[in-house]
Fold this protein.
Amino acid sequence: MPFSKLGLHPSLVQAVRDMRYEEPTPVQAEAIPAVLAGRDLIATAQTGTGKTAAFLLPILHRLLARPRNVTQALVLTPTRELAQQIDDVLLGLAYHTGLRGGLIVGGAAMGPQEKALRAGVELVVATPGRLLDHMRNNQARFDQIDTLVLDEADRMMDMGFLPDIKRIIARLPARRQTLLFSATMPPVIAKLAADIQRNPLTVQIGRRSAPAVGITQAAYPVAEHLKPALLRHLLRHTEMPSVLVFTRTKQGAKRLAKKIAADGFAVGELHSNLTQPQRTRAMDAFRRGVTQILVATNIAARGLDVDHITHVISVDVPAVPEDYVHRIGRTGRMEAEGDAFVLVAPPEERLLVRIERQIGQRLPRVTLPDFDYSQAVPDGPPHGRGARGRPPSGKPHGGGSAGRPRRPNGGGRRGRR
Ligand code: AMP
């Protein structure tokens, strides 16, 4: 079904055309008519399914028929990066409408945000903490907000935002449309939905917490102290145009980025020890391909949309299987292909088994024939990056092509639509 058949305003259909969306994704096809009809919605959709446009398009459509200069719609999302990403999509979709969005996130100056709120931007995209700061200052009117989106609701719960969300909702009109997007539906979200929604339509896209199609996965068993060395070996000997590396801790991310940089790679860091401008710069550089590798904590695991990531490498095994699915969802976006590797120390095997159970798939265990697994020194001497693109040296066990180094031309990666 084309976008033009969804009943959206022509200015939005035009924007979608400008953005080269050919047809609605499944979550868009289901959600847009329901939201246009004014219904509450619970959507459990995998990341990368087009959920942002699924809520923005019908909201913009409805705003078009309303008075301007009054804030009427609010999107709450857990992290600054996600808020920025939603705001970017909003800019594209609202291009022909004259509707304005305001980005209200921590780590940025309050002044311009206050100005935007006072000017009555029609749609606000915010992280909960900073929005509450503004609400406390009473700088703007929030009593006309009758459309609320909770994006990545499960992540917001994980991050402890439930009390903030409740406080925010208490400031909004009781008569409103509430759209809840969550990758998973733990009981705490079901309870929240029951408290704040009215007769919601439930849309479930794809299998719960399954990785997107097009992702080839592999596990690399290795002693904990050899993980940095194995990672550097993989980076040096495999063609990896754009790599997102995950570590459990901020310190770990920092240390690892330093080691990788010593090998001559262009590398960035993304974790919460950085200031907001540093985080934005790191994201921008990675997005533009200025840095080939971004080392991040889970802060980047949810929802980040960088369309060219070819590899996601987890240096530790996440304790929560869903976190694994979110991490690897950073590659293979919108049906492109990508590889996801996880380095597994012996004590982490049981965590990996839990993940395998959740995703319904056993990952091939890969050992690299030319990596010295018996080395005592944690890390080898730095090498230049000239070694990249050498002939394949990885040897997957247990079937599948995962772990096979990519050909120098990035062989066979299907582009995004
Ligand atoms: P999201 O799940 O909202 O993070 O979206 C993932 C990516 O899909 C974003 O880069 C969107 O721009 C893109 N996208 C959203 N809807 C469509 C569509 N109908 N066709 C093609 N790409 C889309």
Remarks:
- Residues 21-22, 24-25, 28, 47-53, 89, 303, 305, 307, 333-334, 417 surround adenosine monophosphate (CB under 6 Å).
